[in-house]
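Limitations

Structures in this collection are predictions, not experimental determinations, and the ligand pose is part of the prediction. Treat each record accordingly. The example that follows, with iron/sulfur cluster as the small molecule, is included so readers can see exactly what is and is not provided: the inputs are given verbatim, and the output is the predicted complex.
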Amino acid sequence: MATAIPGDLIELLNDPAATKVLATVDEDGVPHLAVKQSLYVDVAGRLVYTELLESSRSNRNLVRSIWFGKSVSVIVSGAGGRSFQVKGKPVKTHISGPLFRKHYQEIRSLLGDVDVAAVWIIEPQEVIDGSYAARSAEERSRFPFFDHLDRLVKPAAPAA
Amino acid sequence: MANLNLAIKEKRPLSRAEVTEKYPDIPPLVILKADVQRRGVHYSEAALGALDLELHATTGTHIFGARDGKIAARPESFLLRDGSSIITTPTPLELDPYLVDLHEGRPFLFEDGEPVEEVDYWPRPDFYDKTSSSGTLMQNVVSARPQRLNIFPYRYCTFWNNGNGCSFCDIVTQMKKGKEELGIPARLDPLEVKEVVREALLEPGRYAALFLTAGSNVAGKRAFDDEVDYYIEILQRVGELFSVPNIPSQLIGTAFDDGQLERLYRETPLTSYTADIEVLGEELFNRHCPGKAEYIGYKEWKRRLVRAVDIFGPGRVNTGLVAGVELTSPGGYKNEDEALARTLEEAEDLASQGVSTVYIVWSPRPGTAIGDQKNASLEYYVRLAAGLHGLRGKYRLPIGFDDYRRCGNHPDSDLSRLHNF
Ligand code: SF4
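Predicted complex:
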């Protein structure tokens, strides 16, 4: 089931200064992680990833995912510890046609003489806020035993 | 599972859903592709209405014909969501093809009234509507797949001169139609080909391979010298456009002798070579390809393929099958198990010597000697794809020159997308 990425997270994902990592899984279930700064969110709210190399592990793993309905993840991390993860399913790859051509031209104008193998469309399935503040608040409410007691001690009354 | 068990018990051909369930390691999209190739397609009026002549490639320049025998503006073929193509032909409704119709405004494949999978019509190349300096419409000189430029230098085959053309082939009928109805030149001028390729390459990111094929031409000092000379001339002219001596390219030609192969390799930018044996097994080859048998012979055809590996290198030579003709009568294998075993045995003999085998699904065409017979079951095509793919894995044979992107017509080489060699 597709899910919507909240607006502030889309902003972070589309920020060129943010770090974006694509996690895919190989045939043995071993995760493969790679920084992929080309990732962004399109107007339909889907993740778009431009793959430069046909033979890359990410590309092969994406093919496996689209063939067998497996998920991939994208982790985004920005300034001030803001980070989140999107789990999604690759639903389409463009290897020709107007969208492919647009990305081919854009990437080449940015990076010079590089090739483009495919433009992948990933449909978000789940968004997880990964920043410490959000995760810590969630843990405290869902798992009340997971805490160190000294963190719960009343602050000492200020000396008179 | 219940249906699958019943089908196995009843020994009836498995449906696509049953094949998908039985072979979980084969991607459902590849299974669908083989089934669509097997059964063909029929376009609804709405699907044809969605065809935009400015955006989509339409039929017209095929070297071989359609299953319904018509030449008309229809989508040339489709791209699937995984980037592979389904190259298929419009097929009369009574043959139970998939229906292409609109679903939520987009073209979809339909089976039994249900939408099965979205498809994109192939994008129209920029050069198609331009004319060459001789005034010929460029799409009638060179044609295109989503990522490949096709050059069909001429559209005849001299095996037909004494009636020895292949049993499944309609090149001559198609040439006449192309000439009469579309004005396609029967023989291309190499300089004009260069002019059109130059124009085509102005489209950014559109082409990843150059492809040539024509019928066999026995003429020349040695048989097929004229065919080789002509390919060389075209490849050299086109090669002048590039800054590198070798370009990603494929030639499907006759099985040439050592000297001819050496010339093709040394005198042109060609990087891979294919000589289609069409069917594996000497008796079947003699029956279905009498022209090839008359001039070269089965064993020599195989020997020349192996020799081509010495010249072009491992992973750069293959042969193609028209899969399904091996089961036609008279003379075909008795059942699919036997056909599969014998075909894979022969394919392994080639693979062990560096030659890959790929197949296309035979689509019976009107007017051909076996055009009134049926092709094989879906399960057969899936097992064959898995078998040929397995051989490439076993012998570590890359197939990058004839894969989903550079060709798109072989369910077996689609599977190589997961190979790391
Ligand atoms: S070699 Fe056979 S299939 Fe090829 S063009 Fe000639 S007759 Fe047709």
